[in-house]
Design goal:
This protein has 243 residues and is mostly helical. It contains 14 helices and no strands. It is elongated.
């Protein structure tokens, strides 16, 4: 079953409070029950659901930050988040509600940061996918870039981590390998290798799925992993050449 199935009618709307729970509750006309919040923490399926809903809400906010919601962005949201045709209506309800409500993106970002406070790689992946969506019309606008950077800071990601995500979006022949790995060209190879191994473990698709990232969006994680591998190979080749 797709992660997008039963997002509104299932447990999610009753399992989490805060702005996300309020938004879902407003759609279904339900009441948020705090007594069932712990069940969410224990349910792997619901971890994936909250990731999915978080993406829909933040992409809705991102889509309108530059003043317009382009056809390309709407198509990208459907295709890039792998939303099946038969489930687009309920996902669309969440998207439209998030786009129209009076809250900015900040309260949602704060709640997502709290939910995944011990899973930095998952928060990293949210930023990665927001870039993915913003690129849909061919260019990340300045207003989109500012919003994504602000969300990253709300998530507790520092500038080095943010620039690493941003740089990893480039093709392998254009990326700066040191920025991708968050290290300096002055670092010795042992230090760089240690950083590479750490990032490889954190961002391996299997590790992210275990932490609650749905398989429907894991393809972007695979691209991030390829960028990390490519960056390390470039540095290794360069270091070997000059040793």
């Amino acid at each position: 079953m797709s992660i997008w199935g039963n997002l509104i009618g299932g447990y999610l709307g009753f399992s989490i409070a805060g702005p996300i729970g309020a938004l879902i509750g407003s759609i279904i006309g339900g009441k948020i029950s705090s007594s069932r919040k712990t069940r969410f923490q224990q349910s792997f399926a619901q971890q994936q659901q909250i990731f999915a809903v978080s993406l829909v809400i933040l992409t809705a906010k991102l889509a309108k930050v530059d003043g317009i919601v382009s056809k390309e962005e709407l198509i990208a949201i459907k295709e890039k988040l792998k939303i099946p045709d038969h489930e687009i209506d309920q996902v669309g309800k969440i998207f439209d509600k998030a786009k129209e409500d009076s809250l900015g993106y900040e309260p949602y970002a704060q709640q997502i940061a709290q939910i995944y406070r011990d899973k930095t790689a998952v928060l990293d992946e949210v930023i990665n996918i927001l870039f993915y969506i913003a690129e849909a019309d061919g260019k990340v606008s300045n207003s989109e870039l500012i919003m994504i950077r602000n969300i990253a800071r709300t998530f507790g990601l520092n500038d080095i981590q943010f620039e690493g995500i941003k740089e990893s979006r480039k093709s392998s022949d254009k990326l700066n390998p040191y920025i991708v790995l968050g290290c300096s060209s002055k670092d010795d190879f042992a230090t760089i290798r240690k950083k590479y191994i750490e990032l490889s473990k954190q961002h391996h698709p299997d590790a992210l799925i275990i932490k609650g990232v749905p398989k429907e969006v894991i393809e972007e994680s695979k691209k991030k992993m390829r960028a990390i591998n490519s960056a390390f190979e470039k540095i290794k080749k360069n270091k070997t050449k000059h040793s």
